[in-house]
Amino acid sequence: MTGDWIIAPVVLPAALAGLALLFARRNLGLARGISLAGTGALLALAIWAVATTGDPQVYRLGNWPAPFGIVLVLDGLSALMLLLTAGLALTVLVQAVTTGRDRKGPHFHALWLFQVMGLNGAFLTGDAFNLFVFFEVLLIASYGLMVHGGGAGRYRAGIAYIAVNLVGSTLFLFALATVYAVMGTLNMADLAVKLAELPPGDQALMRLAAVLLLMVFAVKGALVPLQVWLPGTYANAPGVVAALFAVMTKVGAYAAIRFGTLVFPPGNAATGNILSDLILPAAVLTMAVGGLGVLASRGVARVAGYAAIASMGTAFVAIAGFTAPGLGAALYYIAHSTFAGALLFLVSDLVTARKRGARLPGGLAALFLVAAVAVAGLPPLSGFVGKLFVMQATADHAALIWSAVLGTSFLLVLGLSRCGSRLFWKADDAPAPRLSAGELVGPLWLTATLVGMTVWAAPIRAHLDGIVAGLLNPAAIIAANTLGAVP
Amino acid sequence: MEALFAIAIGALTFTGVYLMLRLRSFPMILGLTFISYAVNLFLFISGRLRSGAAPIVGTTDTPADPLPQALVLTAIVISFGMTAVIVMMSLGARFEGGDDRVDGGSDGPGNRPETTQ
Q1: CA nearest neighbour of A132 among A211, A37, A217
Q2: Average pLDDT of chain B, as a whole number
Q3: What is the residue range of B84's domain?
Q4: Closest Cβ opposite residue B102 in set A159, A167, A177
Q5: Residue A156 in contact with residue A101, Cβ under 8 Å?
Q6: How many domains does chain B have?
Q7: Is the pLDDT of residue A427 over 90?
Q8: What Rg value do the Cα atoms of chain A yield, rounded?
Q9: A189 CA to chain B: closest CA distance, Å?
Q10: Average pLDDT for A60-78
Q11: What b-and-e string marks burial along A132-164, b requiring 16 or more CB atoms within 10 Å of the CB?
Q12: pLDDT of B113 higher than 60
């Protein structure tokens, strides 16, 4: 993907969402067509971006030279996250259409497209303040999607979700104002250059800003102790929306990787290893809280929420060192846990749509088994491969991290098997119901993706290692920004 | 002037945090608003505090930095929109759920606020 096409993943969903609002308010078929076509086109764009991944490329908004204008930067990591978002969004959107979940309230498709626009923008932008703006775009769309269909529980959980994220946004602004006051710039590449030349007197302020930024990303990425909003939100959101939200926590992980490799690389003079030192213990605690939460929860949606927390803990453990093997493992695990978490939420949606206590279809039990195996990290699915990668990368801290990873997997196996036996293991003479074809589309697609990630784990990992090599060489991104040069 | 600004931002943040920790949605939203006012002031002075300076080079001796003014405009618009969203959401929760508590608990039937139903 080159030149002006870099902005297409942001502009396309924005324009289509506007069209859906203007012309398809009462026409569900047209709205479905717009959003399916748009998300499909985004998937095509993302595949193109991944296939042509090379040196980082820059798009200047309004052709203003960096660092004075805002730039979008497309590198291997952005392309990967675009693919992850578009792939998940299309799968879950098809499921929402075939099961009719999009009928339950107005403007589902417009909100969906705005949500995808915010995600794509957050993954593409090369400017710290623009990252804040795209965070707000994806959040405001997610507030609407979260209460899609209404109901007292949803509104109540929605308020908590919005309040926590508004505080997170305010912290983000405090951090950005501190960064701008010290550095005089908000372009990420320019920050990387200027941080190396920062006078010692200002270094403490940048450490403060780095920790504030990490707190913001911890809110997004559900890192302990800022994970409290997640279980209630995901359990009360409609299942298809919760499945899309599986990629939202990854925005936090993405931002932590981006800032930890480009702006605050490990061992730099100003902030040292402060990000690693804070992320590692928080990530281990996150795994523990996720595992214990799965064991303590009753409903399948809450179990899925706590499993999402545990998966973020595993991803952040791999991120914490900001080493090449760790980041490669983290990217693989992030991709896996997005699809596995979404599968579990889709299964939970199909369970909660049925009458409580009614006999559940056997096919649903099989899907739950697949999702549970993937989420807990048992062989043969990609969760096992992902956890193996994570453990290989963290052999230095084997005593702490390996016992946390394996202990959490054990808790997840226990919690998920208890949840599954309570749901499906019943003696009942009622005729066995069947899953309709429409209900099977999304889960089967996600299962196929997980199987594909397992079968082609080695080539995928090789591609990810290429991305990580680019990340750990910030000079290429900085050069692509051509700081100060008039185009 | 620095001291005045610092005290104002501190007082706004303090008020905001206190109100945000209250039990009901109305004080909580007021608290969020206070904190967003505090951060708007904080953003505004990140280009240094100068009085009587225009953000255009050549009109005054030392021009003011225009970027924080643009940033703070963006932040004001966003926090305004977000406040509107959370107000609508609280009204939804108040009329669907029967009370305006934000801590997950609920008022007993005896001390429930008057509803319009």
Answers
A1: A217
A2: 85
A3: 2-49+63-97
A4: A159
A5: no
A6: 1
A7: no
A8: 22
A9: 18
A10: 90
A11: bbbbbbbbbbbbbbbbbbebbebbbbbbbbbbb
A12: no
pLDDT of residue B108: 58
Query: Would B84 be classed as within a structural domain?
Result: yes
CB pairs < 8 Å spanning A and B: 91
pLDDT in tens, B31-43: 999 999 999 999 9
pLDDT at A6: 92
Domain membership of residue B105 (yes or no) is: no
> Strand, coil or helix: what is A409?
helix
For residue A463, give both structure tokens: 């591609």
Range of the domain at A259: 3-428+438-475
Burial of A451 (0-12, 13-18, 19+ CB in 10 A): middle
Six-digit token pair at A221?
């990425």
Q: Taking an 8 Å Cβ-Cβ cutoff, which residues of chain A contact chain B?
A: 129, 133, 136, 140, 143, 147, 150-153, 155-156, 158-160, 162-163, 166-167, 169-170, 173-174, 176-178, 180-181, 232
Contact partners, residue A92, CB within 8 Å, separation at least 6 = A240, A243, A244, A342, A346, A442
| Model confidence at A87: pLDDT above 60 | yes
Interchain proximity B82–A147, CB inside 8 Å: no
Model confidence over B8-36: pLDDT tens digits?
Answer: 999 999 999 999 999 888 999 999 999 99
Q: Which of B2, B21, B37, B96 should be substituted to probe chain A, the one whose Cβ sees the most A Cβ atoms within 10 Å? A: B96
